[in-house]
Amino acid sequence: MMDVKDLLEMLQQTGFISFDGKDYYANEKGHLAKQTFFYVDGSKYYAKGDFTLAKNETITKWGKKYTFDENGRIAVEFLL
User: Fold this and answer.
1) The pTM is what?
2) Are 80 and 60 in contact (CB under 8 A)?
3) Across residues 9-37, what is the average pLDDT?
4) Least enclosed by CB within 10 Å: which of 27, 28, 32, 44?
């Protein structure tokens, strides 16, 4: 169970954040990515509507399918 101290520390983080078995990404201003693609070190990622990173799954956005690996990096991108 997370206490207030843990929550405050998590909210001040940037970059990739792991919490309660799920992974998230916060930009340099500390804002969590949501429903957006973003790049880190040349790799493309996607944060879903619940803020979690797409991992080991395929999602469809804007007429394209995107498959993500176990690290959340886009592995395959193709038109429908």
Assistant:
1) 0.82
2) yes
3) 87
4) 28
Q: What Å distances lie between residue 29 and 12, 13, 26, CA to CA?
A: 9, 9, 7
Domain count, the chain: 1
Residue 61, pLDDT > 80, answer: yes
Domain limits for position 39: 4-79
Q: Using pLDDT thresholds of 50, 70 and 90, give the confidence band for residue 2.
A: low
Instruction: Summarize the confidence of residues 8-35 as an average pLDDT.
Output: 85
Contact 56, 68 (CB under 8 A): yes
Residues linked to residue 4 through DSSP beta bridges, in sequence order: none
CATH assignment of the domain containing 45: 2.10.270.10
